[in-house]
Amino acid sequence: LRQFSLQYTMSSRSISKVTVIGAGLMGSGIAQVSAQSGYQVTLVDLNEQLLGKAVQSIQTSLERVAKKQLKDRPEEAKQLVSKTMANLATSQSAADAAKSADLVVEAVVENLELKRSLYRQLDSTAPAGCLFASNTSSLGIAELAEAVPNRKPTFGGLHFFNPVPVMRLVEAAFNQLLEFSRSLGKSAVPCKDTPGFIVNRLLVPYLTEAVRMLERGDATAEDIDTAMRLGAGHPMGPIELADYVGLDTTKFIMDGWHAKFPNVELFKPSDMLNKLVEEGRLGRKTGLGFYKWDSKGSKL
Ligand code: 3HC
């Protein structure tokens, strides 16, 4: 009973200040959509260079969103950008940025120990009742929350998709995070705490199966992509999407699952994927993966 009432009291804290840790593609996107929806957002990363790059990409993305949503109203479009940017601050200290947060969203690299050590830092300063959420693409939420046992009642999964400002779905493994996702204008699905939730558990093995098909020489990358775009109605084929998501990200997710479930055939590593990652060909973000990408992120 005590635990129930504690959970009830804690989860009733309303959200106005959001701290996002990690200013990569996902973190920047989460910060952007939160600031756009009127939350006071602090985006955190290790240095000014990373933060500067993130703020620049948020500005560019917002201008695209504003141009699309407010096509014939340039003044309002300008206001949307300036209002959103005014809701956004940056910090190089996770502990400082968590001090007055109602919700902390962690979007750092997919490394269990790194994430756990970050939660311990956040725990030392975040107010009681502050919600902790992880944008993990493959780890279990209970496993992550072990680092901060006292936060378990207010710890959940909150998984976005790239590009965050465009993709309509959020997966949430915690009720209050469903409400938050909806307040961002996203469709939200509740998920059990299972690795990869719904989308990545299906999507990442599918991407790797497409790489294996290429590896076996059954079809070219272009033909696999055309087939899935035109034959299954997907906006991008799986080889292009693997480049888009990042070949390192795809590999890390599969490696983690393979280590955990060594007998599952679908999670076995792909030599071709390993080799590309070893060579630093990580896909869209490095300009080269299975395909070539220009500096603006368009496939050549
Ligand atoms: N910010 C703002 N707007 C953006 C944007 C961004 N970062 N990226 C694209 N857009 C907008 C464009 O401005 C464009 O608007 P318009 O309709 O007014 O022209 C619209 O989105 C479509 O973009 P484009 O015309 O450039 O290109 P496409 O029509 O090919 O769409 C795409 C691009 C939305 C990326 C589409 O190809 C797509 O949906 N691809 C699949 C993406 C996907 O599956 N993502 C999930 C990956 S898995 C994941 O993220 C989970 C992780 O844990 C691994």
TrEMBL record:
This is 3-hydroxyacyl-CoA dehydrogenase. One of its GO terms (biological process) is fatty acid beta-oxidation. Pathway: Lipid metabolism; fatty acid beta-oxidation. Keywords: Fatty acid metabolism, Lipid metabolism, Mitochondrion, NAD, Oxidoreductase. The keyword Plastid does not apply. One of its GO terms (molecular function) is NAD+ binding. The keyword Cytoplasm does not apply. GO terms for cellular component: mitochondrial matrix. Its EC number is 1.1.1.35. Its main location: mitochondrion. It holds the Pfam family 3HCDH_N. Belongs to the 3-hydroxyacyl-CoA dehydrogenase family. Residues 196-293 form the 3-hydroxyacyl-CoA dehydrogenase C-terminal domain.
